[in-house]
Amino acid sequence: xxxxxxxxxxxxxxxxxxxxxxxxxxxxxxxxxxxxxxxxxxxxxxxxxxxxxxxxxxxxxxxxxxxxxxxxxxxxxxxxxxxxxxxxxxxxxxxxxxxxxxxxxxxxxxxxxxxxxxxxxxxxxxxxxxxxxxxxxxxxxxxxxxxxxxxxxxxxxxxxxxxxxxxxxxxxxxxxxxxxxxxxxxxxxxxxxxxxxxxxxxxxxxxxxxxxxxxxxxxxxxxxxxxxxxxxxxxxxxxxxxxxxxxxxxxxxxxxxxxxxxxxxxxxxxxxxxxxxxxxxxxxxxxxxxxxxxxxxxxxxxxxxxxxxxxxxxxxxxxxxxxxxxxxxxxxxxxxxxxxxxxxxxxxxxxxxxxxxxxxxxxxxxxxxxxxxxxxxxxxxxxxxxxxxxxxxxxxxxxxxxxxxxxxxxxxxxxxxxxxxxxxxxxxxxxxxxxxxxxxxxxxxxxxxxxxxxxxxxxxxxxxxxxxxxxxxxxxxxxxxxxxxxxxxxxxxxxxxxxxxxxxxxxxxxxxxxxxxxxxxxxxxxxxxxxxxxxxxxxxxxxxxxxxxxxxxxxxxxxxxxxxxxxxxxxxxxxxxxxxxxxxxxxxxxxxxxxxxxxxxxxxxxxxxxxxxxxxxxxxxxxxxxxxxxxxxxxxxxxxxxxxxxxxxxxxxxxxxxxxxxxxxxxxxxxxxxxx
Length: 676
Known about the structure:
The protein has 676 residues and is α+β, with helices and mostly antiparallel strands. 34% of the residues lie in helices and 18% in strands. The protein is built from 18 helices and 22 strands. It has helices spanning 35-40, 47-53, 63-84, 119-127, 148-160, 224-234, 265-268, 311-320, 326-333, 339-348, 362-373, 390-400, 458-465, 510-549, 551-561, 567-594, 601-605, 646-660, and strands spanning 3-4, 8-11, 14-17, 90-97, 105-112, 164-169, 176-184, 189-198, 206-214, 239-243, 280-282, 285-288, 405-410, 414-416, 419-429, 440-445, 448-450, 474-475, 481-482, 485-493, 611-614, 673-675. The strands form 4 sheets. Strands 8-7-6-9-5-4-10-12-11 form a 9-stranded mixed beta sheet. Strands 13, 14, 15, 16, 17, 20, 21 and 22 form an 8-stranded mixed beta sheet that branches. The chain has a 3-stranded antiparallel beta sheet with strand order 1-2-3, with no helix packed on it.
């Protein structure tokens, strides 16, 4: 054992002096700074300079995510512009790999058929951060901050030195504007390098944005392919054409990626893809078709609700108001404040509606704030929201998810911090979804997919807290259910409480999570009904198969007892009896249990129902195979691991169609839809 002291080292009771010179601290060479000298070194920075050094806050923290964020911001702006102009969106997204320049170099081109942009607004929209028309208004929209597309151009300029290229035509019959601009991050101002008029744009109005940047293209759950697929689900009124980069971008062995030019949507898509209801591939393009021929309702702009205003914001509003008296200020600055409500607030604050605003100080403002909290005020109007709707959710899920059961639910609007919001949930179950994996959660905020920070999102926590075991699914504690299930959850609000500027996760407010859980439970009850009915059909089919299985043995046994009896005739008679006895049960299972009828997908979506069931074969129904070949029921209703044979679906369909006597469905129609 050794112990040390300041003078030496003590070993075995003896002290030995430390050898060598003792270390010396360097002398303090710092010179004192005066306040004037320190003030001379300080300067202000622009918002673009701040985000240029902290670009991870905007979603540009790695090359793969930067590629996705650029596409996301351009597509979101295109959808917003088309919807505000009441134009059905036609959007093309092209990603080109440029390995001849650099292995990580990509060119992203996004084109839309929107209203276009007037020339004097191009510079500020694409070359200035925090510039836009959405931040200061309370209205549902995808963008909120005025950062996204200009930040994408800033990232491309920083990584490649190439400016952003914008081509826009605001009026038909007139030349388009071709503008190339960069951003001066020190002053947060655009720098235009090229400004000419061109005819290199389709005849319709619209905008084309091209950004060249350093990135990395990969497939997977957080890829551009996944983002566009989920965008098509939440926006069934939009048609999106997507061309991914070549195989060289995926790291596979193959030829170098071609240097391609941005195409026109109408010229690149095949004519037969217009009528498709599911995603199709046409050459190098992936087409996400339009399944709804109507735009979502246009949300109206509202004024702030008094319950959501904080004391400091209230004092600032009083100082900047053009009104002269308190009553006029309350009625003009807030929504749901009538003359009666304004009078009640003033009386509780010890003031009158005729009180001059210039006489209101801090004490009076605090009294007004407390009076607002103690006054009963109607909830804010809901015309500022444009939810997707159950019909559109079903159309989107049908387009992007291969399942057999679809259902959706839209909750009544609610309020958090004075901001109205609405929750929608859609569920797809069974079909081609994997039954041996956990459920997949698709999150949206104002129709925009959220691909990152899933565990930090309030919508994901609401799915985890839902007890899916009550609805016939297998679920471990604190985990997602293990079932062939896709859960889509959407929040529509005038101001979505994101956890960061990159808009990747929704904050966990109690009011929001409660509405999410209620919507999930409503869809879960519909799913449980379908799962239990499916299990009942399976059990009934297995019982009939077991009975028919022993008909031959019974005929042989009777022939052994009485040789005069013909075993073939006995078998035929017993089969006829079994068929007549089970005919009634089959009709009851079809009409009372499934309650479905074959129809076209477009016709099914025209109905007002909130559930779709795609015709699928069920083990044990009309199956001539031995019962031992049927897997036991797991309570999940999935088809991921079932051993299915074509004879099962043909036999079951033949029985159903013989009873219908209409013969509307053909024997090869395996993808027909039913309406529940």
